[in-house]
Design brief:
This protein is about 25% helix and about 30% strand. By secondary structure, the protein is α+β, with helices and mostly antiparallel strands. It has one domain: 2-Layer Sandwich (60s Ribosomal Protein L30, Chain: A), CATH 3.30.1330. Strands 1, 2, 3, 4, 5, 6 and 7 form a seven-stranded mixed beta sheet that branches. α1 runs parallel beside α2. The longest helix is centred in the middle third of the chain and has 18 residues.
Length: about 120
């Protein structure tokens, strides 16, 4: 099975040696996204809901570059630096997906890149 990188247009370089997504067969595996503005490379705010909204916009952009859409997402992993932010993240998340919602795991972590409050990764088919 081939392993092909999906690329996106950005004004700022990515923060490490990874691809935005990798296509393997019919699956698209997206790297973790934080709530950064791809034009500035900085977090959009220090608000978890605003970061979550930006993340999901970033995910949609990567999916589109890979020929997929939010409707093709089958699994999402969510990482929160404070589990008390679960409800705020969940409210935003629900606006970006339609039923049947993707399978999802949400965990609390100590820290995330660039001081983010939330990070999400996804798999689409």
């Amino acid at each position: 099975m081939s392993r092909d990188a999906v690329t996106i247009d950005r004004k700022t370089p990515m923060g490490g040696p990874f691809s935005p997504a990798i296509r393997a067969g019919e699956f698209l595996y997206l790297s973790g996204q934080v709530g950064e503005d791809p034009d500035t490379g900085k977090l959009v705010s220090d608000n978890v809901a605003e970061q979550a909204d930006q993340i999901l916009k970033n995910i949609a952009k990567v999916l589109k570059a890979g020929g997929k859409s939010m409707a093709d997402v089958i699994k999402v992993n969510v990482y929160l630096t404070d589990i008390q932010n679960f409800a705020a993240m969940n409210e935003v998340y629900a606006r970006h997906f339609e039923a049947p919602y993707p399978a999802r795991t949400t965990v609390a972590v100590v820290a995330l890149p660039i001081g983010a409050l939330v990070e999400m990764e996804a798999v689409a088919r």
